[in-house]
Amino acid sequence: MDRFSFSRRDILTTATGLLANTLGSAAGRPKPPNIVVILADDQGWGDLSIHGNSNLSTPNIDSLARDGALFDRFYVCAVCAPTRAEFLTGRYHARGGVRGVSTGTERLNLDEKTIAQTFKPAGYATGAFGKWHNGSQFPYHPNARGFDEYYGFTSGHWGQYFDPELDHNGKLVRGKGYITDDLTNHAMEFITQHKDRPFFCYLPFNTPHSPMQVPDRFFERFAKLDPKMRARDPRQEEIPMTRAALAMSENIDWNVGRVLAKLGELKLANDTIVLYFSDNGPNSWRWNGGMKGRKGSVDEGGLRVPFLIRWPGRIRPGVRVSQIAGAIDLLPTLADLAGIPLASAKPLDGKSVKPLLMGQAKEWPDRMIFSLQNKRISVRTQQYRLDPNGQLFDMLADPGQERDVAKDNPEVAAKLRQAVAEWAKQVLPLVGPDDRPFPVGYSQTTLLPARDGVSEGGIERSAKPPNCSFFTNWTSKDDRMIWDIEVAQSGEYDADVYHTCAPGNIGSTVELSFLDGRVRRKIDEAHDPPLVGEKDDRVPRGESYVKDFRPFRLGAIPLSKGRGKLSLRAVEIAGQQVADIRYVALTLRNQASVSK
Predict the structure, then answer these.
(1) How would you class 535 by CB atoms within 10 Å of its CB: exposed for 0-12, middle for 13-18, buried for 19 or more?
(2) For 119-158, what is each residue's pLDDT tens digit?
(3) Overall number of domains in the chain
(4) Model confidence band, residue 28 (pLDDT cutoffs 50, 70, 90)
(5) 33 falls within a domain
(6) Nearest to residue 116, comparing CAs of 141, 92, 80, 83?
(7) Eight-class DSSP state of 178
(8) Which one of 9, 131, 479, 515 has the minimum C-beta count within 10 Å?
(9) What range defines the domain where residue 222 resides?
């Protein structure tokens, strides 16, 4: 069972790791390599020029393969949060409780050990800069999962990419400029700050995920592009979406170049492992090497992504790895390359591919890599893919999955169907309904976004995708916003609601309640900022637009330790609508008692 447990032992283990690292250097042992992991969001295998796409140019990402290794067949999950969980743990995402991409289903169970919690005790400075997507509130927050430094956003997508609201070590801040550039700036500052000790820098970008926003200087050359290379079925391709995705991919490439240049400037290039991959297949129909499927699919096109890695002087330039591998392999591989023992209490699903990188694999047994999305399972071996419908495809002879060869290979088909059935028995019971509450009181301030709440009555979300939405259409005293929470410690909490309220609607009295505690206050000031985002979009979005929500202090509410429903309602309504709500924030007054 997943429990809210958070310890301060990281301080001791980090100090121990630092001492061990210092003594190791003094004894003449080589300094452990730095690690830089760059993750793209919704970028397909075909969105790089090194894979043959002449619609764009990605020389900096491509250089990782020229100077290091490229994997021909590298597999992740069909959507974002599961891939991130598999990278963080080396285990299939279902084992860690990750069921989806929003409303709490994206959270990684607290008894899972992350890659940062593996590297930090070995003396590494750890930082993450970008889209986390494996839990927001402490102790799910990246600062509680082994990362000393965090800057980015914790949900699945964001509503504005220029000067956005972001999270810096648990506090809301305002970003500067285009989000991908800003995240890279912070990652480079972290690298510079820790240049004299080993560091683990995780840079999970949120592009080219929608909304499709990109600076003019990257979009200009694509604005009227007629792509020479098209989707497998050109009738499905939305050219404006392709143009934006390609421009965003070139922006990513520019930022990868900045990171590589910074490593060179600091004379760290030879001491640093840099790897690059994406979290799922492309988010639209565009050129992807003729593969079947896209994001959300467990066919090849939804799962096969770029993977490139360099370590000058250790990995030979120009290595091409033909054996299948996946996100589950990254933790054991990086630990193996860095010489860090794995001390996980849980068995890993991944394996170290160091022998493949170093040319030491005289024999490499065939293996199976399983993929799960919405209870649909496929499995990949070196030669075959079995899809959720039981169809078998020879991926060497038929990479586009055009012909079912199950009848021609009955023994192979039977073996893989049995393997899927056995694997399903293990993992499907783990991805049922999510009954985990949202934790409160594990940090000084807990933010409960609209994404994590549910509404009753006529209240609606500002858009169907929940991640960056807010609650609106609050017009009745029967309407409620509810969060299922578990309070870690009893006490007085200052309650704020991040709201907007038009001048004609001021005067409503709202109440926040939990078990026997409650607080009320009248909204007596207007705050009515405009929605933003539309003017920066290159194509129409499905996500919510955003606006500047202001905290409104309701007052102190007593919260008793335990689980219950936190409810926000109106007891008096003065205008046509009460307010729009983005967050409820709960701040424990006795800060000294909070675990850090």
Answers:
(1) exposed
(2) 999 999 999 999 999 999 999 999 999 999 999 999 999 9
(3) 3
(4) low
(5) yes
(6) 141
(7) B
(8) 9
(9) 10-357
